[in-house]
Amino acid sequence: MTSTPTTRRLAAIVIADVVGFTRLMEGDETGTHSRLREIRDNVTDPRIAAFGGRIVKTAGDGMLVEFSSATAALRCAVDVQREMGHRNLYVAAAAKIEFRIGINLGDILIDGDDIAGDGVNVASRLEAMAEPGGICIGATVYEQVHGDPGFGFVDMGEQRVKNIARPIRAYRVVLGEGVSLKLRAEKIFRGKRLVWAAGVIGFVAIGVLATFFFRSWPYPAATAPINAATAPGQPPALSIAILPFVATGGGPADDRFSETLSRDVTTALGRSARYARVVAYGLAAGYKGKAIDARVVGRDLNVRYLVEGEIRRAGDKLALEATLIDTGSATQVWTERFDISVVPAETGNAAVAARLSKSIRQALLAVESRRVARQTGASASATELWLRGATAMDEGTLQGMREARGLFDEALKLDPGHVGALRAQVWVSTTLLTLDPKADRNRIFQEVEDFSRRAVAADRNDPNAWMARADALLRQWRWAEAAEALAEVLRIEPSQIYVYHRRALIAIWTGQPAEAFAQLDQAIALDPRDVDDADQLFIRCLAHLTLGQYGEAINACERAAALRDDWTTYMFLTGAYAQHGQMEKALGAKSRLLKLSPGYTIARSKAIRISDNADFLQKIETHLWAGLRKAGIPEQ
Fold it and tell me: Angle, to 10 degrees, between the axis of helix 479-492 and the axis of helix 498-509?
């Protein structure tokens, strides 16, 4: 009898496992088996085939799949997890079917139709590290992903795992909003999204406006000791230096480009992150070509964080990987990868510099906010009080907002011109209008007017200050003046996509929802990842709903709900489903709405008074309130 020869090859291995499979089977064996069969028929198997994968074997609670391409394997996994997120929108937590997925690119043994070997073993360990509904990949997969894949990564560092002698470098995939992590401060602390704290949008309550400032993603926990920033010898909060990027494997043109980009990113960060201490590039340039100790450089430049970047040529593109390093512990706390179209070095690349500086800004805010949140000791600077206030805002509760206001007040006592605290007061005040039905509206309008004016006066070149000013004016229905403030944001930071989000909202609130789509498309043109942004989708949903385009509204809102679990999204979904005749889904969305916002009534949303425009009010009455009534939402 002739045995099949055992051979080896390189492959991308995907291992998927059902979370809590035993519990699900014990609770409903027949139903669980049936649902898993349906998921295979309609979700996993078609996608595996579409991406060129081969199912090696399956078990009741998982499967082993082989791909020839790491990128195909990862995109397939992301597609599956996003679809499962949509499917689980209205499923009770105890009944949800969720996958953990691990992906590795490595050497495998081929034994007939089966595969084995180290590559499979590593994939199995990565799968165990993944969160429910999540994906964990190895460094070999991460290094193969080119371009902007439309999702992000969190560097989990080197992990020691059972039965594998060497450490494994692992990355968690962030499905929501692009490599922009954004890794994403999607959520700034504890993996939770920081509140946008924006009563300005009214319906969105705590959902869609202040994100401009505290936009970021889940980051690995800071490992440096937490000490008071005001202690002797400690660098100031939000202090950072951009070290010269290193071009490897290229020629002189790549070296010139890396030099130009390093300088451009430093300039862009200093312009957009006015609250941070950004070391002048001339000082950081002295470290070019030198092996450095992050602790020593941090002491020399008096900064808490360094950014290093490596640029490698990949065909007709340059691949850039940037990292943020905590100088106290010499620990990498963030990483992001970009593919860059080659441009003449002397011209630089303004779009790339803006995009990278935005990601660095978000990462810096996220890690510093977490550091300050864990801080002990009474001594704190105005900036640290401001960051603590942001942490309190993240709770999204009335108590959290009141606590945040108190911390911002303390910061302004120490520094009356602290722009961060001034603009944060605008957002916390407008949010209080939504959360507190007893709030004195006239007093709050006066406060946001005062705080926003002071913020702009303190620094007329701070784009965040002008954004706060625009939000204060929007809350007062001063549409033309708000548009002028938004123009100031673009003057300072032309790549700021959230300006276009707000312009889209202005179009909706002034009774011209059809005009919102051009603004949203402009945001996508500036950053293609915005197509899957929760805020972009939320605003798109509202625009379609006010036009009576219920199917399109449902599509956008379902996608938004899969990224962000807030009551306003389910309010829109409830109304749209009911108007579209999908009453079973309307009741499911209504149940989620009432869970997230107990005692919700139509009158509560009407009381927010987001707009005085008659056309807008008529459209909302016809399309949203009428839909909510059909679903049984009470008027009062």
Answer: 170
